[in-house]
Specification:
It is built from four helices and seven strands; from the N terminus they run H-E-H-E-H-E-E-H-E-E-E. The protein is of the alpha/beta class and about 150 residues long. The chain has one domain. The termini are far apart.
Length: about 150
């Protein structure tokens, strides 16, 4: 299947799920796009489930995941290993569940939040007691960012 056709299908599926439009009553269902072999993505999904989110995890190829990121308007500098959607927002990377809850409660005018890269100690990236500092960034469609929260 040509990539443009695949991109169109993904876009139509995302649009039909209302993933690009904010809604007043944000759902607790998070749709996560990840590759099938990424263990830290699975650990992040488990983190969300433990916090009470209903998670729909979809395993796709790396190429398809990059297409999802591009179609969602995610800039490469914000990228991580998985991309999720909830309540009309993009959630990129190892974002703590508490920050997703805060995003949904505050409902800012933004495209989403991201934890770029894969910082040690973030949800899904736990390794002993190692805790690297990292920020959760709020971003808009123009690519502007601001710190939403910081750890530790």
């Amino acid at each position: 299947m040509p990539i443009y056709r695949f991109a169109l299908i993904i876009t139509l599926k995302l649009a039909s799920l209302g993933l690009f439009a904010h809604s007043a009553a944000a759902s607790d269902t998070i749709t996560v796009y990840k590759t099938p072999t990424c263990g830290c993505c699975t650990d992040w999904v488990d983190h969300l489930k433990a916090d009470g989110f209903d998670v729909k995890a979809l395993d796709i190829t790396h190429q398809a995941l990059n297409q999802v990121k591009e179609e969602a308007g995610l800039r490469p500098e914000l990228a991580s290993c998985h991309t999720a959607f909830v309540g009309g927002y993009v959630i990129e990377g190892h974002v703590p569940a508490a920050d997703i809850r805060r995003l949904l409660a505050e409902s800012p005018d933004a495209l989403g939040i991201a934890v770029p890269g894969m910082p040690m100690g973030s949800p899904g990236m736990e390794f002993g007691d190692r805790q690297d500092p990292y920020a959760v960034l709020l971003f808009n469609k123009e690519g502007q960012t601001r710190i939403f929260s910081q750890y530790p």
